[in-house]
Design goal:
It catalyses: [thioredoxin]-dithiol + NADP(+) = [thioredoxin]-disulfide + NADPH + H(+). This protein has two domains: about 190 residues, FAD/NAD(P)-binding domain (3-Layer(bba) Sandwich), CATH 3.50.50; about 120 residues, 3-Layer(bba) Sandwich (FAD/NAD(P)-binding domain). Helices cover about 25% and strands about 30% of the residues. Helix 1 packs parallel to helix 2, helix 1 runs parallel beside helix 6 and helix 4 packs parallel to helix 5. Strands 1, 2, 3, 4, 5, 6 and 17 form a seven-stranded mixed β-sheet that branches. Strands 8-15-9-10-11 form a five-stranded parallel β-sheet, covered by helices on one side. The chain has about 325 residues and is α/β, with parallel strands linked by helices.
């Protein structure tokens, strides 16, 4: 019987493993199909993590995390988890190490499977991903100080990030295929009153153009008139949705093991408790996640401390 199963090996999962093992839990297993590190390992530069002054790649940044976490006894099972179920007081983990489905039982579970920004599918997007195509203004705005930038999207995230980018960029082009926006009226009002933001509607991005140095232009098309426009910018920030990796919580009947909101984000309280006792969620998977490494690490720590309390209470009850 596993004391704590941690599903997902990004900053939230590794932090949870560190604090759970160092906090006294003896049998803590991290389920991660590949090398731990998470989505952040795909970043070319990390420079905003407190206490880490040197600019590092995502891989270099996450490598010491693994060493530190496993030092205290965290076990890594290189397996892909397909589903988590609640069976009585225990949880059943369904996983595959490459030889067919297997199961393990755990007293508690922390799900840290994260998510990923939805891609637009625009021509040139894959070619320039990370080289002028970004989905994180907080991460990358600094690199475009006093430059003109573009934002794609029509929801709250797109408009809010456009406003945020005005703190750095000389001008922000907000591109949306419709004249109407899904963003909250008050947010839209703030954007329209910001002289640095120019609305380009109803336009679609036909192609992201560039060279070896990265993005240098966008080819736009007006969906009503058909007129084309070239926008000379070094970056496009895409905010066309976010997909959380919640598949492990989906049950055989299609329902979810715990409460999720209408977008599939796991509903948690401030201590990372889900609606199911003993089940915790941390990082980008949860509601209202800030999608920053430091926030995910804090979530994982909080969840681990709560899991310790939960497991210790179970052991005391049995004794």
């Amino acid at each position: 019987m596993i004391d704590l199963a941690i599903i997902g090996g990004g900053p939230a999962g590794l932090s949870a493993g560190l604090y759970a093992t160092r906090g006294g839990l003896k049998d803590v297993v991290l389920f991660e199909r590949g090398a731990p590190g998470g989505q952040i390992t795909g970043s070319s530069e990390i420079e905003n993590y407190p206490g880490v002054a040197a600019v590092q790649s995502g891989i270099d940044f996450m490598t010491p995390w693994q060493e530190q976490c496993f030092r205290f006894g965290l076990k890594h099972k290189m397996a892909e988890v397909s589903r988590v179920e609640k069976s009585g007081e225990h949880f059943k983990i369904f996983y595959d190490e490459g030889n067919g489905e297997m199961t393990a039982e755990a007293l508690s579970v922390i799900v840290c499977t994260g998510g990923r920004p939805r891609r637009s599918g625009i021509k040139g997007e894959s070619e320039f991903w990370g080289r002028g195509v970004s989905t994180c203004a907080t991460c990358d705005a600094f690199f475009y100080k006093k430059k003109e930038v573009a934002v794609l999207g029509g929801g709250d995230s797109a408009v809010e990030e456009a406003i945020y980018l005005t703190k750095f960029a000389s001008k922000v082009y907000l591109i949306h295929r419709r004249s109407e926006f899904r963003a909250a009226p008050i947010t839209l009002e703030h954007a329209r009153s910001n002289e640095k933001i120019e609305f380009l509607t109803p336009f679609v991005v036909e192609e992201i153009c560039g060279d070896n140095a990265g993005v240098n232009a966008l080819r736009l098309k007006n969906v009503e008139s058909g007129a084309e426009k070239i926008l000379n910018v070094p970056v496009i920030f895409e905010f066309v949705g976010y997909e959380v990796n919640n598949a492990v919580l989906k049950q055989k009947d299609g329902s979810f093991l715990c409460d999720v909101d209408k977008w599939g984000n796991v509903v948690v309280d401030l201590k990372m408790h889900t609606s199911v006792p003993g089940l915790f969620a941390a990082g980008d998977l949860r509601i209202d996640a800030q999608k920053q490494v430091i926030c995910a690490a804090g979530d994982g720590t909080t969840a681990a401390l709560q899991a310790i309390n939960y497991v210790e209470a179970l052991h005391k009850h049995k004794n």
